[in-house]
Amino acid sequence: MRLPYVADPPRAQTSHEAQILARVQERRAPGSLLPLDRALLHSFSVADGWNSFLGAIRTGTSLSPVIREVIICRVAILNGAIFEWDHHAPILLQAGFKDEALQVLRDKHADLASSTQQGTLSPCIEVVLRYTDAITTTITVADDLFTMVRELFSTREIVEITATIAAYNCVSRFLVALDIGEKNSAA
C-alpha cells in the first residue's frame, strides 16, 4: 500500500463519521474491514459514497451473480487488479462458473468466439465479456456489439451491466494506483 491503512477499526472523529463507519462495517462480515475499506476510510465521505454505490452494484441489481462476477473478474484482469481478482474469482466459482471458463476469462487475449464454439463459454457470457472488454479498453462500444447486447438483455439489465463495468473500472484503478492489498507485483 502506498499510503498507510487506517486502524481497524478507524477512530471516528464525529457522530457523522461513526454512522459512516457503521454503514461500511454493516456491508462487510462482522469485524472484517477489507484493505480497500481501510484505504477509503482516510476520507469518510468518499468511503460513504463508495459504500453506497458499490453496495447497490453488488446487491441491488437484477443481474445474476454469474453475470456480475464475470464482469468484475474480467475488469480485474484487464486492469491488473489482482486483489480484486483474488476476492471475486472464488465468488464466481461458488456461483457455478466452471474452472475451465474461468481460465478463459483470466486470459485477456483468449479467443472468446472459439471458447464459445467449444462450449466453454455460453454465447451470453461471450457477449458480456466482449462488452466489458470494449468499455474497459476503449470506452466506446461498436454498434454491432451493442446490438448483440440489446438482443440478450433488457434495458434495465443493460444499465446495470454498464454500471457494473464502470464501477469496477473505478475500483480496479483505485486498487492498482494505491497498491491496495500489495498485489500489483503479482500481475
Automatic annotation (TrEMBL):
Parts forming coiled coils: none
One Pfam family named in its UniProt record: CMD
Domain annotation Carboxymuconolactone decarboxylase-like: ranges: 46-105
SUPFAM superfamilies on file: AhpD-like
Name the record gives this protein: AhpD-like protein
